[in-house]
Queue: 3 jobs
Job 1
Amino acid sequence: MVAENAGLSEAEVEAIGRVGLSLDQADKMVENVVGLFQVPLGIATNFLIDGRELLVPMATEEPSVIAAASNGAKMALAGGGFVTSSTKPVMRALIQVTGVDDPWGARLAILSRSEEITSRANEKDPMLVSYGGGVVGVEAEVVETRKGPMVVVHLLVDCRDAMGANAVNTMAEALAPFIEEITGGRVYLRIISNLADLRLARARAVFRAGEIGGPEVVDGIVLASALAESDPYRAATHNKGIMNGVTAVTMATGNDTRAIEAGAHSYAARGGRYRSLSVYEKNRDGDLVGSIELPVAVGTVGGATRVHPVARAAVRVLGLRSADDLGRILASVGLAQNFAALRALATEGIQRGHMSLHARNVAVQAGAKGDEIEAVAAKMAAEKRINVDRARELLSEMR
């Protein structure tokens, strides 16, 4: 059904279901390859994003994540699904200048030559410029550190449909001698910043009170949101729930999960205190309105997205038109995932649904095989006794 919906070729179907990544391909991707480590790839359903119905590939080892995302998306349908927006795909290259006698003067010297800096940087990637990307701005700040003041230069680079790390790093390295010439200082670091605060995706959804359990559930989720906005201990778990969905789609499409996670968590702490990435409010109709904003440094060209056969197939399943498109999907999935967790917390608690799905893993750990797995899992779930010892007892009785 997924293949028919996405128009997948036989080779893409084979890649998803049987072949996957070959050892030879893996050997070209990273160093010292000795084997492959597989992660389940599932499909989240019910997503309506900006009027488009989507099937969403998610790569994750955690039970209940895909079910929760699908359930959250389903409950958003009555309110029109997810409505998204985004900024341009701009990333920052960071150049650290040390040993400057007059850092404030050096800052102004850099800014006064921003056009020349931009021109030199863009010469390093004419292909990116031809697609409408390249350096779109230059910033410079004096940063006080325990080793004294340093001048930090940011190149603002429109990366188009690339994640951008290679292009940004190449520009920063090439510019280092010129920056030293301007400032009289010594450049050390010249590398991308993963705090992609200029490359944001946003999603919003209305969850009808009648669809999610009534006014009390709405109020409970709003109260949970208020705590996550103020308490970093709660915000950490709140945002982990968001990233359950975001990271799974990022991995499925062959993008850099570490960059996405670093960006999201640093963005959550940008005001000096770690806070939630999402907010929930009650509108005048008594319905729940959820919104989310997070950095989305992802690409649809280059890297594992082009090399990994399953990632290529996942991109086709999503019907991606651009990196911006993928970023908006990530925001929507993150919001759906987050909403589903908060609704569970506001009603039956998080463990009931999670542990019921986790029961299959427990049954396998106990040695169940074939049809035994579902039978043992169902029995444990019904008893609300989900542990390996009970699974072994049930398996022994069954055999």
Job 2
Amino acid sequence: MSRSEFTYSENVLQWVWKTLHFDTSSLSTATGKECEIRVIDPGELNTTDGPDFKNAVIEIDGVKWHGSVEMHIGSKSWYSHGHHHDKNFNSVVLHVVVEEDPVQVSCEDGNKPFTLNLLPHFNKEVGDLFRAMNNSSGLPCANGLTYISEKALSQQIEKAQFEYLEKKVNDFIEFFDPALLPFNAWKSALILSLFDGFGISKNREQMVKVGEKFLEMYGECNKGFPIQALHEFSQTLNWNYRGVRPHNRPEIRVVESIAIGRAVMELPEEQFLEQSTTDLWKAILKKSSISESGRTRILFGTVFIPAMYTLGNLLAYEKLKYSAFQEWKYLSVPVPDELLERYAKVPGLSPEIYSGKLGAVHQLRSYCSKRRCHECFVLKKVISS
């Protein structure tokens, strides 16, 4: 495998080292005097400051070294990261890179750790897989899907589905105002999240401003809600109309957001606790006079379910939390085809695995696009096959 074929992050290199997916029988130093290297213990992955692996045991020219291992794609990163001035790296006994002609590095105390170029020693199946992934126009691992089961990808998308729930819960909490009473803060966060969702993708910031103004006006009005004043406020904002489809234009989304915001505000607390997540959402849409659509279905998944899950946490109400979780687990939404086209390029892959699943979108964004292949069930299945 050549350097140009390794297009992955240091995290992937760390994974190869930790799992010993390389030929350990013919390792030697790549700078200074050539010495034989034997990995007795790759060490423990360090998740805090300092070298990547600690408590490693490396035998070099028959001498056992106990210390740390630092990893870089290119050796010069040692200096660009400032390790030569950092005492934490004085414990490094081996510098591991994927570079044909690495430079010798030195520590803050003047010590010069041994350097290993791991590139020529990758296991054949790992090297072949990386090459196939580099040449894929669909999923990074598309060329490997001929010799693994679809079950691995299905399990990975399920994992991504649960991770995405955590992300959407965190997004919801961003709108939570701790200065308010808990349920009032939750309701306000729900309304702002819905306004934000109605603004996707061109006008989220503007819609949140309308949502904030809505909450301000709603709290001040004693009788009729000043809808006209809110519309006048929305007209002062700088809306983005470029590429916005007719049904997604701001004037339409503002009307829908106000209607759904009022429906949420007028529902009593006990109704949120007594009705199922699905029935409650239908009741809100009915009260808002909004027909179910692709957008409302997506908002149900990306905003309302995470909000109800958060409410269950907030009130320590396990029944509500479990109900929301089950809704999320089996959720199917109209995900735009263009978001999932990379799956469609995989020959023979059943659309049932990815269509309608938010986890499939999260998988592409958080794993495939970021090349977090080493954390994916698909790659692990290929390696173990």
Job 3
Amino acid sequence: MIGRLRRRFVIIAAVSLLVVEMIIIGLINAVNYIQTNEREEQLISVISENGGEIPEFMRKDKQHPPHEDGEMPPMHNEKEGEGLLGFSMNEETRFQTRYFVIKLDDEMHVTYADVMHIAAVSYDEAVQYTADVCTSGKTDGFIGNYRYHMTQTDDGKMYVFLDCRDDLRTRQRFLLVSAGISLGGWLLVCVIMIVVSGVAVKPFVENYEKQRRFITDAGHELKTPLAIISANTEVIEMVSEPSEWTLSIKNQVQRLNGLVADLLKLARMDEGVVQQNFAVFDLSDAFIDIAKPFTTLAENKGLTLEVAGEDGIKMNGDEGSVRQLVSILVENAVKYCDEGGHIRAELSLSGNGRHAVMTVSNDCKEPPEVPERLFDRFYRADSSRSREDGEKRNGYGIGLSVAKATVEAHKGKITCKAENGRIYFITKLRVHT
């Protein structure tokens, strides 16, 4: 159990960290994509607004001297940046940017072609790119490594193609590097979590060990006084006639012996020391053999018990434990069924045929608010009714805890639900094929 707890702790922590890292990686790469995309769009916009070329930006300390008449020559000062992540242009931008421009007249003939700012594209290739874009009917987008944008001019159309191969590579490399670093960090943290998981669950382990030792010691200590009480009761019955008092004592001793046995079994199952003798057996026969005899007990209490089982269902498991599981569920239904109610115990195959579905239900007008809590040890669905009903309600909890532990030992699943005035215990066990 401690090993399962440590694994669960590591898995939950690792999955949570992985989700957080994926969100962070996604946000970082999204910001990088938006930033480069904005830069590309603004570059194309600048080229389009300036007739197909990037204007020359001059620093103040490199301005041309005045003309002979004293007038300053025209110049473009460096554009200020738009914040830390914003786009800005400077005097080097026109030399760092690779692009080509094609202008068409209204009849779609090439009237101007500028391929001087790019070495990877010839005139013919530029014209072909433009023809492909015109055929697509789009005014902007990507074609190969080039982002394009069409601007309507007075004498036709102007297409600006911006070389974005460096940005595309940068985005891809940034994604791979960020993902690789994050994955490496995640693996490192997982290793650290595996190492320190023992320290993290240590307080729970200590409390659990104290509880387990208490249950085990108390169970063994109770055996001796119960044996003495039982023996003394038999002596009293030998000396005098059996009475309702001696019968009550014997019944309570029997109940306490069963409770102690269940407690010790739970403790051993938690420790993992219970030997499960797994073998293939006929689950259908075992279910009928155990459930059918409870029909008489149900009739004696004014109840009706219906048992239905599909033939030929086999499973690989501990037959003794599974038989006890059936006994616990059916006995629980008989014990807590409403007066004059109906009980149904059914065994069938699931829709895909991979699991045996064991359903035990009974009438219950006042089900617990949280049916799943019935599997908690010593849980009382209604403490006030427990005091009023006395013995009827004292068994809630420990038997179903044993049932749940048995199902989990067989890698199955047991659930409880309440609907339409009935309570259902549904068990799924993998069948042998």
